[in-house]
Amino acid sequence: MNTILLNRFNESQRQEINWGLLMQVDVSLFAHVKLPPHRMKKIRLRLWRQKVDYYAVGLSIEQRREVEYGLLQGADVFAYANANIPVLEMEKIRNTLLAERKGG
What we know:
Blueprint: H1 3-6, H2 11-22, H3 37-55, H4 61-73, H5 87-101
Helix pairs in contact: 2-3, 4-5
């Protein structure tokens, strides 16, 4: 989001927008000057849950957490978002994908 546009928001609103950008959710759905920060947060978290749910269908809570970690870190979660893959193996796959992405 453009820095000039961010100046229209108060600090709490900017924080919610920044969290949304980090979480790679569509901030245009809640980046409105008249929207209070607590509403922005509620929308941001709902968008995040929808994003995680898309990848984590049928996974255990622990497996879902691995998917969330991967999404936050930019890993290709499709490579391991599978109920048949144990959590520790998911973690290894995620770490390998991230290491490969960094070139190491």
